[in-house]
Amino acid sequence: MQKIVDNHPLKPLNGLTLWLENAVNAFMTSKYNPFYYHGALPQYYLWVLYLSGLLLFAYYIPTIDNAYLSKNLVNAWTSVDYITKSLPFGGVIRGIHRYAGDAMVITILLHALR
What pLDDT digit, counting tens, does each position of 46-94 carry? Predict the structure, then answer.
């Protein structure tokens, strides 16, 4: 990791990340240190988002016409409810899609801070 110049406002954060990297390297080798894969992890999560998004897209009906007026009307919420409760592993796929998006944002932020 490159050191930040002395007058940079993120200098304390740089010291923290260097300390954290060294602490992780003490437990595992640098080959398995997750801090060295911040560039590759968001790409992995992006592919997970593509695949889970395609599965969700097959059953999702994106409309807001007459939303929440009747359970007989097909709207966005009823399609999400159908995916979650009626499809096999629908809730799992939604969870994977959500948490992969969260993990992608976190790894991108960690990569930007590095």
Answer: 999 999 999 888 877 777 665 555 555 566 777 778 888 888 888 899 8
Would you state the torsion angle of the CA atoms of residues 47, 48, 50, 53, taken in this order, to the nearest 10 degrees? 180
Residues in the chain: 114
Domain that holds residue 24: 8-35
Q: Are 104 and 43 in contact (CB under 8 A)?
A: no
C-alpha span between 44 and 39 (Å, rounded): 9
Domain co-membership, 83 together with 51 = yes
Of 74, 44, 51, give the one whose Cα is nearest residue 61: 74
Half-sphere exposure of 38 (CA within 13 A, CB side): 14
CA distance 90 to 7: 51
Q: Give the total number of structural domains in the chain.
A: 2
| pTM: predicted TM-score of the whole model, two decimal places | 0.65
